[in-house]
């Protein structure tokens, strides 16, 4: 019976968390409409640059193919590497990723500041948000935390890329696999999958760190990141944390195949699938940031309620004395 009640309470708290994250933007519709347009512009420009300027998918495939041929000591590929035919596309990919990361974090900071102000009952306008006059939090603290998140996300991406490159190069160098080669390749693949899962889970922690910095005044990026880590790993809110990880990490991954299929099929299919990718991707980035803010606010309310409950017996004891 107690387990049933606890399960029902946990389900209701998850439902209230999801409902609140959906309702919060309606409390300041004009501001969040502007922010949704801002996130949409970020997504549109990223997709347009990736598809029409940088050609991310073909360049990435070309780099992987050249690495595979380089392992096999192909003379033509070795000459291309020496003549910068290999590094120039790789530099384009890196520059595109850095620009995308900076744009994404800037939009997340804006949405987190607006969501935090609205959740506290002190909504602001888009002009006040741009000028840094939002009623809660500190735009400098949020930007400092975003800078730390950028460094950590780059490190996480580098680790993920290194694990994938290790598995890819070993598999390419050992095409005739035996027992030991298959075992090592399987271990490298398992290491890559673990790095991928960690990368996806950390995405939720990074988003929550930005939400924490938008809600709290003072403190550095490190303290905000540590607080977000404690909130995500706390057992009391583990179901809500799992839902937030789903929103921040797995939802964008589930949407991505539409864009990948359009990029693979060419321009004609891109006109059909890319618009269907833009709105869900925009909604995923927008809603995950709002959900992180709601998660933080509910955690703080839960913490205050526990402190007040613990203080009641002490006050009653003092009154009797």
Automatic annotation (TrEMBL):
Segments traversing the membrane: 32-65, 142-168, 188-215, 236-255
Keyword terms: Membrane, Transmembrane, Transmembrane helix
Superkingdom of origin: Eukaryota
Name of the protein this chain belongs to: Uncharacterized protein
């Amino acid at each position: 019976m107690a387990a049933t009640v606890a399960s029902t309470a946990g389900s209701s708290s998850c439902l209230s968390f999801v409902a609140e994250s959906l309702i919060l933007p309606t409390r300041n519709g004009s501001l969040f409409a502007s922010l949704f347009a801002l996130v949409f512009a970020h997504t549109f420009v990223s997709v347009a640059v990736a598809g029409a300027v940088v050609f991310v998918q073909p360049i990435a495939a070309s780099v992987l193919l050249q690495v595979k041929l380089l392992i096999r000591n192909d003379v033509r590929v070795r000459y291309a590497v020496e003549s910068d035919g290999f590094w120039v596309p790789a530099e384009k990919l890196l520059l595109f990723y850095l620009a995308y990361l900076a744009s994404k974090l800037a939009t997340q900071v804006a949405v987190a500041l607006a969501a935090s102000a609205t959740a506290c009952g002190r909504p602001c306008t888009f002009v006040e948000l741009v000028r840094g006059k939002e009623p809660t939090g500190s735009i400098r603290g949020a930007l400092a935390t975003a800078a730390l998140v950028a460094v950590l996300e780059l490190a996480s991406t580098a680790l993920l890329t290194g694990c994938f490159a290790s598995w890819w190069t070993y598999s390419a160098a050992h095409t005739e696999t035996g027992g030991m080669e298959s075992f090592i390749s399987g271990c490298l693949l398992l290491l890559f999958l673990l790095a991928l899962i960690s990368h996806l889970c950390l995405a939720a922690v990074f988003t929550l760190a930005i939400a924490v910095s938008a809600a709290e005044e003072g403190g550095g990026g490190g303290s905000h990141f540590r607080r977000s880590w404690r909130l995500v790993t706390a057992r009391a809110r583990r179901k809500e944390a799992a839902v937030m990880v789903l929103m921040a990490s797995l939802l964008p991954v589930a949407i991505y195949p539409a864009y990948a299929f359009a990029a693979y099929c060419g321009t004609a299919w891109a006109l059909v699938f890319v618009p269907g990718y833009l709105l869900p991707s925009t909604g995923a980035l927008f809603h995950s940031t709002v959900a992180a803010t709601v998660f933080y606010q509910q955690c703080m309310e839960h913490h205050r309620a526990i402190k007040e409950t613990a203080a009641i017996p002490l006050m009653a004891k003092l009154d009797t004395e």
